[in-house]
């Protein structure tokens, strides 16, 4: 039985696995599966539909491993959201992500488990677009980062409130039961919660260890929101897969992360946008928290990059003024703190797919993987701002979406 194939020709390829551009590239895609059948360069003749990419630059679609599709970055409404409002916002944000070249996300905490529900609908073919690895509701301590009131009547909270290892185990199992693929744990306070400080240590080491043990025994990963130094240390000790933010990461923990292969998702843009756009629009506590730690934060992330910590790519999209269309700006911020262009691009492609354990099918453009790619006018290895192009071509599983 022969299915249609499509041949993309005449492009410069950055495949996401090597720091080089291959001119005169071509790629043959199976239209039924959306996977790459063959990829190469030079002359290629085939009796199939031919798409000439006119000498432009092709790279893998961006993988954003830290989004909050429930959030509106302009209104910043966080509490008393209904499930309908969260779902409506999420669908809108997913469209914006796709248009900006993000073909896969890990959502890092969604009220009412809406990300889990949408991911299930995607798998059933109800709607296509940017794929979701869901975390469902995050794990938070009572009064901690994640204890936001949700529902019109305030009948639930954003996160599961877990105040002991037993409560953590139960919450992780509940997330597993409904189909979460990642567990988000709040190891420290945060910028957006009024009740705590960034360096507050929240979930205990025992609670974090329980989350990791329970998740890892069920093919799930664990991402830790961790900004303060002690909370980062606990999360690294507990064996989480990734430290999200990592604002005050110590030299000792950088060493430990290198040894364990722990990923770091810097989300620099989330700190950058608050003081830049928030004056007079955001609560003073948020502005104070963000501006007080930004220099130190950027310096510590630079130190981790220099040391060789595995960098994964996420933006915390949905936080104040941190739009879903702005994902590619994070690449520029990463180079600003010391990443090379290729390190930034690898973070958003192969590293991100490794962190999510989806690297057998996503993250690089190779035979047997999905044809998720973006088409740019200029060379992203030479100029990281190339990825910020507004009208870039976006292909998901070989189908042009924008």
UniProtKB/TrEMBL annotation:
Residues 191-218 form a coiled coil. It comes from the Bacteria. SUPFAM superfamilies: Composite domain of metallo-dependent hydrolases, Metallo-dependent hydrolases. Keywords: Coiled coil, Hydrolase. Residues 57-398 form the Amidohydrolase-related domain. This is Amidohydrolase. InterPro entries: Amidohydro-rel, Metal-dep_hydrolase_composite, Metal_Hydrolase, Metallo-dep_Hydrolase, OTAase-like. It holds the Pfam family Amidohydro_1. GO terms for molecular function: hydrolase activity, acting on carbon-nitrogen (but not peptide) bonds.
